[in-house]
Amino acid sequence: MKVELYNxxxxxxxxxxxxxLKGTAAAVGAAAIMPKDALAxxxxxxxxxxxxxxxxxxxxxxxxxxxxxxxxxLGATKENVAEGEFAGVELTFMGLNNQNLHNFLFRGFLxxxxxxxxxxxNWIDLAQADYNARLQQSIATGTVDFDIIEMGAPxxxxxxxxxxxxxxxxxxxxxxxxDDYVDYLKAPVGTWDGKTYRxxxxxxxxxxxxxxxxxxxxxxxxxxxxxxxxxxxxxxxDLVGKEDPLTGLPAHGYxxxxxxxxxFGFYFLxxxxxxxxxxxxxxxxxxxxxxxxxxxxxxxxxxxxxxVMDLIEAGAYPTDQINADPGTTAFQQFLAxxxxxxxxxxxxxxxxxxxDTSVVGxxxxxxxNPASDRVYNAQSxxxxxxxxxxxxxxYIGWGVYVMATVEGDExxxxxxxxxxxxxxxxxxxxxASAYPSGFQPYRNSHFQFEEWEEAGYDRAYVEDYLGSNAxxxxxxxxxxxxxxxxxxxxxxxAEDELxxxxxxQYGSAQETADAIAxxxxxxxxxxxxxxxxxxxxxxxGL
Amino acid sequence: xxxxxxxxxxxxxxxISDARRRTGKAMVWGSxxxxxxxxxxxxxxxxxxxxxxxxxxxxxxYAYVLWAFALCAAQVIVNGEKGKxxxxxxxxxxxxxxxxxxxxxxxxxxxFTDWNLASPNGPQPNGWDNMREMWNDGFYWNALKNMVYxxxxxxxxYVIAFGLALLLNAQIRTRKFFRVVFLLPLMLxxxxxxxxxxxxxxxxxxxxxxxxxxxxxxxxxxxxxxEIARFMIMAMDAWTFIPFMxxxxxxxxxxxxxxxxxxxxxxxxxxWQSFKEVIFPLMLPVSVTAIVIRIIFxxxxxxxxxxxxxxxxxxxxxxxxxxxxxEYRDRSNVGYGTLLAIVYLVLIVIFxxxxxxxxxRWMERPA
Lengths: 542, 367
Known about the structure:
The complex is a heterodimer of chains A (542) and B (367). By secondary structure, chain A is of the alpha+beta class. Chain A has helices at residues 3-13, 17-33, 36-41, 43-50, 63-72, 75-80, 103-117, 128-140, 156-159, 170-176, 229-238, 266-277, 299-313, 326-334, 347-354, 410-423, 426-434, 449-455, 459-473, 487-502, 509-527, 529-540; strands at residues 90-96, 120-126, 148-152, 191-192, 195-196, 199-200, 207-211, 341-344, 364-367, 375-377, 382-384, 398-402. The model of chain A is unreliable at 15-43 (pLDDT under 50). Chain B has 367 residues and is mostly helical. The A-B interface holds A 133, 136-137, 139-140, 142, 157-158, 161-162, 249, 259-260, 262-263, 318-320, 322-323, 325, 332-333, 336, 338, 485-486, 488-489, 492-493, 496, 499-500, 502-505, 522-523, 526-528, 531 and B 55-56, 114-122, 133, 139, 203-206, 219-224, 226, 229, 308-316, 326, 329-333.
């Protein structure tokens, strides 16, 4: 679970001192009465027991907690690995150190694994900002110096497309129970060219957040919360000149970030475009799989860009929106009481009550990515007047991968996969989704809300908030980004062209979209069209 | 001991045998040959002409280091005492060549390749393609055009800096205090300035400056229109670096010969006349130096832009460096990005050379 979300739930529940003490006492009691082996082997109640460490509301988990959880979840490893089997094996793990999570947790989780198996792990910790450059340089200069890597799925094209990773053995698939993954993380998004490489440890998607005080009986935004992008644009235009019920400042509708964000800003145009462009008849909505011809200048995408331009024209955005990136729209605008509708990752909902600058904690509601009342069929080249919903799985999620450096040394290979499987284990991931870890729930079993309730969470909140994630993840028409090399290059150059379009330097939305398409064609040619097509098809499972 | 040659600078003149000379030369040429052979071999391997080779270029590097040592040692072996004198400079020269000239040549090579880090084929030479792309790249020319505006803004900064320097040079109370206060912005990192001012004080909704403007009945917008956004970037950059020009000019003012200024006063010159006819001409060399150095600083402007506007709105505030940053960091476009940087370097060298040539006649104090 993201840290902010955890804090939010704690704040939302207003856990009192007695409850907190109860939780802590239960955790201490459980640890005291259970001998080590019983903890690790006690399959039946491992899930309930680990959720008591350290106990919801008992402060942030520490290294000793992570080690305890790692120890208690060793059961699956013990079924496949004998004690001391990997003695003498040394592995290098490269991952992130964001917010002192990620690798920090992995260290704790893997410490008991190291003690049991006899393997030793060396760590490479990277800041998020350094991660991409370090990874790309390692690949480009042929200096892959790590055996296991924590990596975002969008980078798979760079790594798996070049054959740098090791294919997952069947015993690992069984150990981590892959059938439990939410739908979009299963094949073909969970595989590459039909083969499985990723041990998923996270899920990602954008969800819709709105201000409840704008909508409903007598609300300035109308009686109903908008369900389609067409309605969102209409409401946004109608709100011009009205007053925000909370702050008394001018009211605004949907908040589009109009400034780039190192490539990540493009996800936000995708939110609009997915409803128009992601037709259920094809997984492709950004490039044509046979030619890599960009679809970004087809009528669907042009409509999405046009929607934004219409709102600029109507003066529906706050002043200086042209200089607002997604960080601004979420944290400086929406949470601070400017604007009434937003698409973002989970952080927005979780920060609503805990952030000092947030004033919307009590009036925020969630939903899936809005729909469109018509969808463009790229195959027939026609618009179809049917309601279309396509949640944007922006960034797909983090995974753990074993590199091909372990091939040829069976002992090392088994050790690396065992470590990866331990981190992506079914029980351990439940703990990671319930406590601050940097990861979101990504298995169907993570949405068994009674487990959360038993652990001390407020059921109504968890169900409402995580429900929108679960609905997005399991949506039959989820929009998935292409896992091709250099995907963020495409996004970044699109941001530059969009900035020009939004500033009125192109004649129309179509011209802006055409400029993006030209720039994308250049990147494709530079990286290599044939290889991109092959990789794109592999990622789509075609 | 010889009695010929340069005896003045020679501590011990040693007799060097022909065999020793030959050994020294053989060391140099032998190791040079090794470098050349290894480099050629490796190049043939990398281009697929031969099937065996090293995994990396590291052995060639080791051979180069060996050659460097051999070259240094050979100086003493061949030239004796005279060689030792060479040794005081040679390692430094080799160091500079290794760390400046080689990388520059490598960068030049890269800039004529299509190297994109995401490409599976690595760097492939692509002739003049990058140059042609640059020629048609609206973003690059737009950034260059912005640089002209940014550089022109230096003239305004100069006027302000000169004014401040004159004030601080005057006999005013708490002069030392003001000198320190005026220097403070220079001590701040431009990144801090961009966050504290650009992203906080000028934040449209809750920034204090915006609130004041709203209180006064205006509608704040600092980065909404191209002209104002560019002006705000110039202002923030100026705020940081005016103290730098000011301190240089102040030093110049304090070094002016007092008797000349006093003589002008005795002759009945007014304050303005004394400034126009005496102080300003005398300050020209310092002024030109301050302006040229400031322009060089200005040409590297990037951090504030990257943090505050990312080059927007619509490229209005983009600088060449901030554009190259996006090409490199966000798009891993190493080949093209390097070409842009090299072209920019050449432009800067030409520009600064011409500038120095142009202003050289003012660089010396009038007699």
